[in-house]
């Protein structure tokens, strides 16, 4: 089955062609990061306008690169939610236009399911499986006992971890997007500032990052009031250490409790080098548990992951 995937949930215009949920024939992405840098974050109206300008070019490029025509497509998978409404509508309308013109079935994919299935491109899934979803809008632990069975074990009660990264980057004047910048700064610093590691109560698999974010802001303000210099690299390292250790500890707790065979890390923050290192080390201590983290190009928003998730969603919906 050849699936055309379309992703326009935020500030990336992505179109991909994937065969049978595994073989990526093309994965074209137009990113708007440079455009939104000037604003210090994604401006919804600006994002949707650029999607409108680029969607047909990106789609043509994906079809050409796959060396196929629209007639060869068996299924269209498009991100339906969550995301910026204006941006999502561009992808949805493009998908509907192709589906109508070529009489093809269409599935609307949850963006989070896409991030989880980005891992399937390189690694088959072993069930039961635990997914740690970490991005700008989401921080969740999801248990899967089979394809397209999702049980949320824990989620953030306030800020997502990616959001916290962006806000800390803003506080230290480091720019946008915050995740890669803080990760880079942390490598050059020492975790020398005392910041809280917020675990909530001992049985909880939920997350909370607003307290950590507030602690960073308070620390910076206190130093300013005393006219004391703050070392931005040390602060980045201290923040990253506090945030990542909580993610890793809760993942290990959930993986142990549910006796999973595989842990997958999904979402933009999966690109974080410290998370990748710490998670690999922690999982290596769990016998018989496999760790999967996508390649960098599949961590950030892309359409290949939507095509893979769409393939399994279609099979799931049509198996009866």
Describe the structure.
This protein is of the alpha/beta class and 320 residues long. It folds into two domains: 135 residues, Nucleotidyltransferase, domain 5; 169 residues, ATPase, nucleotide binding domain (Nucleotidyltransferase, domain 5), CATH 3.30.420. 46% of the residues lie in helices and 19% in strands. The chain has a five-stranded mixed beta sheet with strand order 3-2-1-4-5, with helices on both faces. The model has no long low-confidence stretch (mean pLDDT 96).
Give the SSE layout:
Blueprint: E1 2-7, E2 12-19, E3 23-31, H1 33-37, H2 44-65, E4 75-81, H3 85-102, E5 106-110, H4 111-117, E6 129-134, E7 139-144, E8 151-155, H5 161-171, H6 178-187, H7 210-225, H8 232-257, E9 262-266, H9 273-284, E10 290-292, H10 296-299, H11 303-317
Parallel strand pairs: 1-4, 4-5, 6-9, 9-10
Antiparallel strand pairs: 1-2, 2-3, 6-7, 7-8
Helix pairs in contact: 2-3, 4-11, 5-6, 5-7, 5-8, 6-8, 8-9
Q: What level of helicity do the residues show?
A: 40-55%
Mind describing the biggest β-sheet?
5 strands, mixed
Tally of discrete structural domains: 2
Would you identify the regions where 5 or more consecutive residues have pLDDT less than 50? none
* Tertiary shape: globular
% residues in beta strands: 15-25%
- The tally of strands reads 10
Q: What is the element string, with H for helices and E for strands?
A: EEEHHEHEHEEEHHHHEHEHH
Question: Gap between N and C termini, in Å?
Answer: 18 Å
CATH class of the largest domain: Alpha Beta
CATH architecture assignment of the largest domain: 2-Layer Sandwich
**Discrete helix count:** 11
Q: CATH homologous superfamily of the largest domain, by name?
A: ATPase, nucleotide binding domain
Mean pLDDT: 96
SSE class: alpha/beta
Sequence of strands across the biggest β-sheet: 3-2-1-4-5
Q: What is the fold named in CATH at topology level of the largest domain?
A: Nucleotidyltransferase, domain 5
Return Rg in Å: 20 Å
């Amino acid at each position: 089955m050849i699936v055309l995937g379309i992703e326009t949930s935020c500030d990336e215009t992505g179109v991909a062609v994937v065969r049978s949920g595994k073989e990526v024939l093309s994965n074209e992405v137009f990113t708007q990061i440079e455009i939104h840098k000037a604003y210090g974050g994604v401006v919804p109206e600006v994002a949707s306008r650029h999607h409108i300008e680029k969607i047909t070019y990106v789609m043509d490029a994906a079809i050409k690169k796959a060396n196929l025509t629209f007639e060869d497509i068996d299924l269209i998978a498009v991100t339906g939610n969550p995301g910026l409404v204006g941006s999502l509508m561009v992808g949805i309308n493009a998908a509907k236009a192709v589906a109508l013109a070529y009489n093809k079935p269409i599935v609307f994919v949850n963006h989070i399911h896409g991030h989880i299935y980005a891992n399937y491109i390189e690694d088959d899934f072993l069930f039961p499986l635990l997914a740690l979803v970490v991005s700008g809008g989401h921080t969740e632990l999801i248990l899967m006992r089979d394809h397209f069975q999702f049980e949320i074990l824990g989620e953030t009660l306030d800020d997502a971890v990616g959001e916290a990264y962006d806000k800390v980057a803003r506080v230290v004047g480091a720019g946008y997007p915050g995740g890669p910048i803080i990760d880079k700064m942390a490598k050059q610093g020492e975790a020398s500032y005392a910041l809280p590691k917020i675990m909530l109560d001992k049985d909880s698999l939920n997350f909370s990052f607003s307290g950590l974010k507030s602690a960073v802001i308070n620390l910076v303000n206190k130093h300013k009031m005393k006219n004391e210099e703050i070392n931005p690299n040390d602060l980045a390292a201290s923040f990253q250490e506090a945030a990542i250790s909580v993610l890793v500890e809760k993942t290990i707790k959930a993986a142990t409790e549910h006796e999973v065979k595989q842990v997958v890390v999904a979402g933009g923050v999966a690109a974080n080098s410290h998370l990748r290192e710490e998670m690999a080390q922690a999982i290596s201590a769990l016998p018989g548990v496999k760790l999967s983290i996508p390649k960098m190009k599949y961590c950030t928003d892309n359409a290949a992951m939507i095509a893979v998730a769409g393939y399994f969603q279609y099979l799931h919906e049509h198996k009866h």
